Each structure stands twice: as structure tokens, then as C-alpha cells.
């Protein structure tokens, strides 16, 4: 056995462990759920067979919403004003009519910028999509009734209507919609935006029979006001990269204590030769692999800890490791946190297997947010490895 090399390896590992405990701090943005109100004005185009400009009308919308997190939210809107339709007869006569409506809708919203690019409270432009359901309450269809009489006279209809879906009074119909929006940040609380959404409603809406759903598209400009703060900051620990620090520390030990080290090595080597006993090291170790919010990805700095565990287990072939995942109780809910904790434990297990550790030597567990090993909530986004 080369005792000198063994001791130098032990010193290197010990230096890495002590250096790895050194941490610095950074500030992390944390999303705060919030309420908002918005007002919008623009135009509507009702899908039809006559000229595009003949089917355009003014449109307005007001709404109130709540963002549960940086991606998902919901809102209630009231949209309305006027819709238009028309019929160009075979004789070249154009008949046009308009009616009024009010449409309360409930939407589910998704912020695509935060979803794909990560949360950034200083981002100037956010892209989003939404989908919703509600009702369309239409009234004032007198112009359609007048147009129907003119069409009947022109075609000499006597026993049936020209507009076969003609309605009167006030009609409430189920409506579904999908849309997209772009918001431009002005201040922390104010933003301006553009929204386009398409609405589907039954075939009776424009009084004409087509055999398919009727559609109208709204394009709106508006402003949004967010109540209170939509984000805050918290301080999180960041492990200092260890490669260079380990190298410097080992060099310091070798350069400043080389004589003493050689003396001790010689004594130990002599003792080992006399007793014919190998040098063994089998001390339990623990490594805490930290993760960022809503993530199970192991960073480069935290991967160093995983490799340390793997190297230790390779040198101690009878050792086993228990990997336990945790989640921050202050963020999300119990169901989501249980998933994050399990995914973090699985990520560390996968990394150990990739480093050459047999899966039979690894035990994985997950505590979700039911156990918080650290007093600081942020530190509980962790997978703890204990090697025995």
C-alpha cells in the first residue's frame, strides 16, 4: 500500500469538505400573489360573408383578476357593445343589421414569458394566453327583423322567413373563447397591453343559418393596475466553487507542512509494515444538495457535492447512502411540494448512478414540506445525502 498517496488523497477530500462549507449570499426575486383591475377599448369583427369593413364595430371590456403565482391566474371580465351581420342577395342588394350584447366571462390565464424564461419582475414585455367560458346576453335585434322583411319581399318568401335563425327580445347563450395578450410594464403597478380573443357562440347569434358556430373576434387596447406588491426579495445561500479553493488549500498544506507530513507518513508506513494492517477510513458523511425555487436541476456547484459522495462510496465499497428530498413550506402547496421533494431526491439518485454508484446501494425518500430540516425556509429546497 502506498500510504503517502492515501494520506494525500484524504487531505484533499478533507480540504474539499471544509471549503465546500463556505457560502456566500445572493438576492432572489419571489413572486407575490396579487389582484388587479383592467379597462380596455377597441373593436370587434363578426365573421361573415360580406365585406370586412361592414362587419366591424366598437368594443369595450372591464375586468378584475387574481394571479396565483408567476404563471397561472384567473379573471372575470365583462365585454360588450355591438355586433354586426349582413346578407348580400343574388340581386346584389346588401342588407346589414346590428344588435347589442353584454358578455360576462371567466378566464384562466397563463404568463408564457415567466413559464419559458423564468420570473423577472423587471421584464418590460410579457406574453400570455388565456381561455374562458361565459355567456353572451344579446338584445336589440330590431334591425335584423327589418332586414328579414326586406329579404322576404325581394325573394317573394311567403311561408318562411328569409333569416331562418331570426330572434327577438333578449337571448343568453353559452360562449367560449381563447386569446393572447402582450403587456408592457410602465411601473411596478401599472402596465399597458394589447389583447386579441376569438369567441364561439351558437348559430343563432347573427340570425342567419350556417350549420356551424358563429364567431366574433375582439382586439383591445387597455391599462392594468396591480394592487400592492407583486414581488419581494429574499436572501439565499450560494455555495462557493470549490475547485480552485481546494487546490490552493492543498498546496498550502503541502508547501508549509511538507516536512512534518513526511515524518508522519514515514512513521505510519513503518507502523503499518510492522502490524501488516491496512489503513481504513469509514466515517459517515453528510452532504446537503440545495436547489433553486420550483426546480429539481442540480447546479454545477451542487454537483460537486454529489461527486464527493460518489468518490467516498467508491473508496468504501460497503457503504450505502440515504437520499431524502425536501421542499420549502413557505412556497406552493403540500401537493406541489411533495412532487418537488420527490423529484429532487430522484435527481440526486440519478446523478449518483451516473457517477458509477449501484442503485442497490442507494435508498431514496421524500418528506415534501412536512419536515423542515432548516429554520430558514429557503434552505429547505434540498436533498440531504447521508452515507453510512
Notable traits:
388 residues; alpha+beta; Porin; 60s Ribosomal Protein L30, Chain: A; 3 domains; eight-stranded antiparallel beta barrel; four-stranded mixed β-sheet; 28% helix
Q: How would you sum up the major sheet?
A: 8 strands, antiparallel, barrel
CATH level-two architecture of the largest domain? Beta Barrel
**CATH class wording of the largest domain:** Mainly Beta
The total of helices stands at: 6
Content-based structural category: alpha+beta
User: Portion of residues in helices?
Assistant: 25-40%
Order of helices and strands: HEEEEEHEHEEEEHEHEHEE
Strand order of the largest sheet: 2-3-4-5-6-7-8-9
| CATH topology description of the largest domain | Porin
Radius of gyration, CA atoms, in whole angstroms: 34 Å
Total domain count? 3
Rounded mean pLDDT is 86
Number of separate strands: 14
Structural overview:
28% of the residues lie in helices and 40% in strands. With 388 residues, it is of the alpha+beta class. The chain folds into 3 domains: 30-232, Porin; 242-278; 280-388, OmpA-like domain (60s Ribosomal Protein L30, Chain: A, 2-Layer Sandwich), CATH 3.30.1330. It has an 8-stranded antiparallel beta barrel with strand order 2-3-4-5-6-7-8-9. Helix 6 (334-354) links the parallel strand 12 and strand 13 (362-366). Helix 1 packs antiparallel against helix 4. The chain is elongated, with a radius of gyration of 34 Å.
Amino acid at each position: 500500500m502506498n500510504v503517502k498517496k492515501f494520506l494525500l488523497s484524504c487531505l484533499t477530500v478533507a480540504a474539499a469538505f471544509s471549503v465546500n462549507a463556505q457560502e456566500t449570499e445572493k438576492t432572489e426575486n419571489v413572486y407575490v400573489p396579487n389582484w388587479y383591475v383592467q379597462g380596455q377599448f377597441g373593436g370587434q369583427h363578426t365573421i361573415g360573408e360580406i365585406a370586412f369593413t361592414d362587419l366591424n364595430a366598437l368594443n369595450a371590456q372591464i375586468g378584475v383578476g387574481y394571479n396565483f403565482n408567476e404563471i397561472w391566474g384567473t379573471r372575470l371580465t365583462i365585454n360588450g357593445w355591438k355586433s354586426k351581420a349582413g346578407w348580400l342577395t343574388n340581386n346584389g342588394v346588401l342588407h346589414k343589421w346590428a344588435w347589442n350584447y353584454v358578455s360576462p366571462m371567466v378566464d384562466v390565464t397563463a404568463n408564457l414569458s415567466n413559464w419559458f424564461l423564468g420570473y423577472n419582475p423587471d421584464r418590460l414585455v410579457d406574453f400570455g394566453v388565456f381561455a374562458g367560458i361565459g355567456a353572451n346576453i344579446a338584445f336589440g335585434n330590431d334591425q335584423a327583423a327589418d332586414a328579414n322583411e326586406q329579404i322576404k319581399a325581394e325573394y317573394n318568401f311567403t311561408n318562411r322567413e328569409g333569416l331562418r335563425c331570426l330572434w327577438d327580445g333578449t337571448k343568453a347563450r353559452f360562449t367560449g373563447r381563447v386569446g393572447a395578450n402582450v403587456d408592457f410594464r410602465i411601473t411596478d403597478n401599472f402596465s399597458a397591453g394589447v389583447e386579441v380573443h376569438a369567441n364561439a357562440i351558437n348559430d343563432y347569434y347573427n340570425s342567419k343559418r350556417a350549420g356551424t358556430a358563429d364567431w366574433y373576434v375582439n382586439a383591445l387596447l387597455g391599462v392594468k393596475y396591480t394592487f400592492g406588491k407583486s414581488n419581494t426579495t429574499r436572501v439565499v445561500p450560494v455555495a462557493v466553487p470549490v475547485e480552485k479553493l481546494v487546490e490552493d488549500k492543498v498546496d498550502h498544506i503541502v508547501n508549509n507542512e511538507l516536512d512534518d507530513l513526511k515524518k508522519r507518513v514515514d512513521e505510519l508506513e513503518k507502523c503499518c509494515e510492522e502490524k501488516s494492517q491496512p489503513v481504513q477510513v469509514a466515517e459517515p458523511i453528510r452532504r446537503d444538495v440545495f436547489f433553486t425555487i420550483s426546480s429539481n436541476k442540480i447546479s454545477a456547484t451542487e454537483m460537486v457535492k454529489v461527486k464527493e459522495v460518489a468518490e467516498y462510496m467508491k473508496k468504501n465499497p460497503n457503504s450505502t447512502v440515504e437520499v431524502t428530498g425536501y421542499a420549502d413550506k413557505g412556497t406552493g402547496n403540500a401537493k406541489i411540494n411533495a412532487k418537488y421533494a420527490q423529484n429532487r431526491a430522484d435527481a440526486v439518485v440519478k446523478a449518483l448512478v451516473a457517477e458509477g454508484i449501484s442503485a442497490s446501494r442507494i435508498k431514496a425518500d421524500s418528506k415534501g414540506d412536512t419536515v423542515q430540516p432548516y429554520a430558514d425556509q429557503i434552505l429547505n429546497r434540498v436533498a440531504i445525502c447521508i452515507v453510512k
